[in-house]
Amino acid sequence: MFGPIVASALIGFFGGYHVGKCLRCRYSCRVVSPGNQRKAAARMSRATAELTPGKPLTLAPAGTISFEIETGQRLRITQPEGEQVADLISFNRDDVRELLSMHSSRAVNLSWKLTVPHVLYSNRTREMWQIEDDLTGENYCGGGYCSEHLNVARYGKQAEGAPNCQSNLEAAIREYGLDRWNFNIDACFNVFMTVAYDQNGVWEIRAPKGKPGDHLTMRALMPQIVAISNCPVLFNACNGYRLKPLTLEILPERD
Ligand SMILES: [Zn+2]
């Protein structure tokens, strides 16, 4: 089946394309204009990693990564040892002013516990991701990530200079010419993180519930730049007081 392979390779390699009829196969696949080929080539070098479908990649404890994902591809985030939080932000690859929004996602879904089959929305309230499976079923959707200033406010001088998700995410997108002012706390989906709210208004980070091998899978609903911080915080129960790896995989296409 050469045709579909060519089509999916093109789709995998290039973004910003227009849809046309492929001359080499029976399928209606995407034809890439020279201008968009140049744009795609320029983009290729900016992520810190390229995820090849079907090849899982390990994100070390406290590590950070950026990569690109095409519409329709599915991203799986796995906790090989359990009890590890991933802070995820993502941008519309074609216009980085559009980024993930937990506020829009909560408001449209009328839920603050987003899991299967919820859709996650952008700050323009357009569909970005659909959650397809979620074995842990615990994701914090209030927005936010740990930063040096937040950690110092919470935990004092010991947090000065300590690794944090804001710095990790900023490092991951630096090659795109982006920095911490291009994203905000509303953009962050805290995968596998357990936060409790009680009736008296107490808000508390609690021990994570992920079991070894638990994963979450989301389908991309637009081409995106994704950045993930493998949360390096040891000051609270977020990661069970031990930092562990995560595994990332873009799943192969379904048959
Ligand atoms: Zn963090």
Query: Helices and strands, in N-to-C order?
Result: HEEHEEEEEHEEEHHEEEEEE
Structural class based on helices, strands and sheet pairing:
alpha+beta
Number of domains: 2
The outline comes out as: globular
What small molecules accompany the polymer chains? zinc ion
Average pLDDT for all residues = 87
Explain the overall architecture:
- 19% of the residues lie in helices and 28% in strands.
- By secondary structure, the protein is α+β, with helices and mostly antiparallel strands.
- It folds into two domains: 43 residues, no CATH class; 205 residues, no CATH class.
- The strands form four sheets. A seven-stranded antiparallel β-sheet has the order 3-16-5-14-9-8-7. The protein has a five-stranded antiparallel β-sheet with strand order 4-15-6-11-10, covered by helices on one side.
- A hairpin with a 4-residue loop joins β8 and β9.
- The longest helix is centred in the first third of the chain and has 12 residues.
- It is globular, with a radius of gyration of 19 Å.
- The relative contact order is 0.25.
- The N terminus is likely disordered.
- The structure holds zinc ion.
- The site of zinc ion (ZN) has 6 residues, from loops.
